[in-house]
From TrEMBL:
It comes from the Bacteria. InterPro entries: YjbR, YjbR-like_sf, YjbR/MT2646/Rv2570-like. Keywords: DNA-binding. This is MmcQ/YjbR family DNA-binding protein. PANTHER family: CYTOPLASMIC PROTEIN (PTHR35145:SF1), CYTOPLASMIC PROTEIN-RELATED (PTHR35145). Signal peptide: none annotated. It comes from Oceanihabitans sediminis. One of its GO terms (molecular function) is DNA binding.
Length: 120
């Protein structure tokens, strides 16, 4: 998976926008103004591809135990976020996309229904 494939996948989800709220290299994808994926474009250019994803706390622990390339979220809440090192992982693309979906769903679930119903 390259950065354009990641970007395209995220932007095709309902209500998703992309932002650079921290600096010009940290790309953030949000649904209804809530982050669900962060990544560093500078790191991708340097060959260190990683993404931060929101995760159910229990599932986050399971993922970390099962996959050495998944760690507590870098510069994020260690309970609710994971960092996935894509550059040195053997994770199938399908599984990575499922983790992105899980993050999106976790964030969307936390948004009031009235707001959720506004996305198309």
């Amino acid at each position: 998976m390259n950065i354009e494939q990641l970007r395209e996948y995220c932007l095709h989800k309902k209500g998703v926008t992309e932002h650079f709220p921290f600096d010009e290299t940290t790309l953030v994808f949000k649904v209804l103004d809530k982050m669900f994926l962060l990544t560093s474009l500078k790191a991708w250019e340097e060959g260190i591809q990683s993404i931060n994803l929101k995760c159910n706390p229990e599932y986050a622990q399971e993922l970390r135990a099962a996959h050495p390339c998944i760690a507590p979220g870098y510069h994020m809440s260690k309970k609710h976020w994971n960092t996935i090192q894509l550059h040195n992982s053997q994770l199938p693309t399908k599984f990575i996309l499922e983790l992105i979906d899980h993050s999106y769903d976790m964030v969307l679930k936390g948004i009031p229904k009235k707001l959720r119903d506004t996305i198309k």
